[in-house]
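Reviewer comment 2.1 asked that we show a complete input and output for one of the modelled complexes. We chose the flavin mononucleotide case, as it is the one discussed in the main text.
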Amino acid sequence: MSSPTRRPPQPEWLAALERRRSVSAAGLHAPGPDPEETRRLLAIAARVPDHAMLVPWRFILIEGAARGEVGALLAEAYRARNPQMPPEKREKFAGIMARLFPAPLAVIVVSRPVGGTMIPDFEQELSAGAVCMNLLTGARALGFDAIWVTGWAASDAEARRILGLGEGERVAGILHVGTAAETPADRPRPDVEALTTRWAPPE
Ligand SMILES: Cc1cc2nc3c(=O)[nH]c(=O)nc-3n(C[C@H](O)[C@H](O)[C@H](O)COP(=O)(O)O)c2cc1C
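Response of the prediction step:
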């Protein structure tokens, strides 16, 4: 039998992974992915570890005119859901909801743990998180920029209904995808060494 040969390191992959940086949704402009690129992006996103192959997630796409339509409904819901809030503040946040989808494409990654299996919900939710991360990396590989966000629209029950979620479903992430004029300066990164220990037998 032949011995295994190690694959050479991939400098382009490494550079992309080592420099990945999110760009705020407001900084993501056209062009966004075309239909074929979107299909490819979602196929990459779906290629994640998934214990027992339950596929405990799905996608909702928001693009084109739908961005403004969803935004208007979310703004209306925000006003209705926060009657006690000072009007000025309420209008400010309703305005943010109205403009929640500025990027050419938003992908809502919906977590939907499958019940009645041996696989804990936590593991299924982790798989949905992996989908979000693959979307970020896949968008970069296709030449786009992206960010993973959540916020009020992901947590409020009425907002979730407007986004198209059903019973037992949660927003794992709203992934905005587009093209950035510039990538922001990097942020401080965790000291990996300080976060890492080597296993030792318990005392
Ligand atoms: C589950 C999840 C939800 C997040 N929600 C938001 C959010 O609502 N708004 C936001 O500005 N950043 C949010 N972030 C953080 C951004 O995705 C991003 O990590 C941050 O802007 C730092 O940029 P970086 O990815 O280049 O480190 C969230 C991250 C995760 C993992």
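The longest strand covers residues 170-180. We note this here for comparison with the apo prediction described in Section 3.2.
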